[in-house]
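ok so I'm stuck.
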Amino acid sequence: LLEIALNALPPQLRRDLYEASANLLEPRAPENPTLWATVAQHLFHAGLLKREPNARRNAAKSALDRTATSLNEALFHLNRSLELEPTDQLTKMLLAEKVLIPQGDVQGALALLDQQHQPEKDPAFLRVWSIARRINGDIDLARNGLHCALSMDVDKLEAARIHNELGNVENESGELVKALEHHRQALFYYQQIGDSVGISRSLNNQGVVHWKHNDSTNALRCYQQALETSTDLGRAMTLANIGLIHLDRQRFELAQEAMQKALTLHTEVGSITGQANSLLNLGIICSQSEQYEEGARHYQKAHDLFGLLGNRARQGLVMTNLAFSMVASGDGKR
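replied:
not stuck anymore, here's the structure
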């Protein structure tokens, strides 16, 4: 009814009403971020195209912060922002870091980021570009980009994020000492600014480094510390890592228990990516403990969720694991 009433108004009066509504809501949006989508839509109807991109970016951030299932909503707002400002660096960075990379589209992220002129002037942009390069296997490029970003004038939060990613780079390079140094430096900055999510992430990453280098005792110690400070999403990620350690030690019941808790938390916070990865890991745990039928059910659910995310690479990994599970169960023909 409201839409019919608005459409019955003279065009200029309709635009004035949308502008007045946007002006009323926009100051309130920082405290209630869910309003940004409405502000963006009202600016669109008011024809205020210069103000709309900022509202679209904030609407995308709100969607991603609210729940991890909102990738499509964020993608809509960011694509609209790029339509209006095709060269905007912040929009490209958000689209690459928060949507394309989580979806597994690293090539798409790199193609988008490599369009940017003079990225070396923005440390946050360089960090996101380096994340994509690391995932793509370009370790030296990623390391150089991160050190370049760290040499700039950055605040403690951005410094923590850069050190966190440098830790990931050095871990993939097999440099245990350097990886731990960077993750501990990230932890130091997160503690200084009181970022509990960052603190949990840093402790979790230290655990990953220890585990990769066959030190499961210290890995579990870091994971237990991470659990003490983490939010639900952080707890889910840490529990999943604890489950993988138990799996590595062939403690299948403990592994299944931890991974099931991780799945429950990922479901509660709406993280489709987390749910899919937890189901994949549950499939592996069940297959290795010869619970083949239950494992197949987990694999199928993981395959469907990765499909929703558009992550075909992970779908392929799921089907490969399912195939090996079927061979082990004596169902080689299938």
